[in-house]
Amino acid sequence: MKRESIEPFFATLQAANPQPVTELEYTSVFELLAAVLLSAQATDVGVNKATRRLFPVAGTPQAMLALGLERLEGYIRTIGLYRTKARNLMETCRLLVERHGGRVPRTREELEALPGVGRKTANVVLNVAFGEPTMAVDTHIFRVSNRTGLAPGKNPLEVELELIRRVPPAYAVNAHHWLILHGRYVCVARTPRCWECAVARWCDYQPKTPPSGAGR
DNA sequence: ATCCCGAGGG
DNA sequence: CCCTCTGGAT
């Protein structure tokens, strides 16, 4: 993707979705952290389905600890990797209470010290909860960044650094959401819907033929 | 590089 | 059946 294409690329995504929001459901920073932790290699729809039952009874780290590992597993059994996630979430709650007064810390270093929280999850919390211009490179953003040529990279960290370098400051805070939504609904993994893509004219990816009968 | 690991879609 | 989903720890 040409450098002069980046501005119109984001301006177009912004026009289509002026106030992008996370599709994970949460009512507090703690719930956001828990939801993002649970969302690894899982769909937000699947996570919401579980947390809508879980959070009313475990909306704080203290309540989660009181719930206990076995019952937590019961709530999230329908999410992939649930045993690892249950163990990590319980341990994270213990650390939140013991080290952080039951609150979610605001620095990358403290967040990444929590089990189950890596660079991507920390980036999401810093962006969504605290408004920082971080680039959380998940499967969608990795794919869209490489496919379009917006920010090529061999691994998520390379893509993240390239995004920080290339995304204009005016779009930096919301870039995460625009790229996610674009990847989830248009620039999908298997058969990208290029025939209905609003930013296709600036994209490096070529196969843009609609399946017969699709589109309008 | 490998393991974890269920649900939904093609 | 195979692929994908807002990855992290070893």
TrEMBL record:
NCBIfam families: nth. This is Endonuclease III. It is an enzyme of class 4 (lyase). Its EC number is 4.2.99.18. GO terms for molecular function: 4 iron, 4 sulfur cluster binding; class I DNA-(apurinic or apyrimidinic site) endonuclease activity; DNA binding; DNA N-glycosylase activity; metal ion binding. CDD domains: ENDO3c (cd00056). SMART domains: ENDO3c. Its cofactor is [4Fe-4S] cluster. It catalyses: 2'-deoxyribonucleotide-(2'-deoxyribose 5'-phosphate)-2'-deoxyribonucleotide-DNA = a 3'-end 2'-deoxyribonucleotide-(2,3-dehydro-2,3-deoxyribose 5'-phosphate)-DNA + a 5'-end 5'-phospho-2'-deoxyribonucleoside-DNA + H(+). PANTHER family: A/G-SPECIFIC ADENINE GLYCOSYLASE/ENDONUCLEASE III, ENDONUCLEASE III. Gene3D superfamilies: Helix-hairpin-Helix base-excision DNA repair enzymes (C-terminal), Hypothetical protein, domain 2.
